[in-house]
Amino acid sequence: MPEQHATVTVLEPADSSAVLLTVEEAAWRLRIGRTTCFKLVLAGEIESVMVGRLRRVPPEALRAYVTKLRRRPAAAA
């Protein structure tokens, strides 16, 4: 019987000098899933811009999002 190998995809960190990030790169930097990041972008929680048909995230938008999260009152448990 042939051996089966799992496929692992490794997303390399984006260039820290990048002017705009893909949504996948933004997700990687925030350590969240790609789908979650797309939901946040489409909801306007994370700022993004369209470059032609491509959606891109300015790196400073990630810091602004985290700052906004830190300023929100903690939800009562």
From TrEMBL:
Coiled-coil annotated residue ranges, if any: none
Domain of life: Bacteria
Listed GO MF terms: DNA binding
Residues covered by the Helix-turn-helix domain: 20-68
InterPro entries: HTH_17, SinI_DNA-bd
Protein name: Helix-turn-helix domain-containing protein
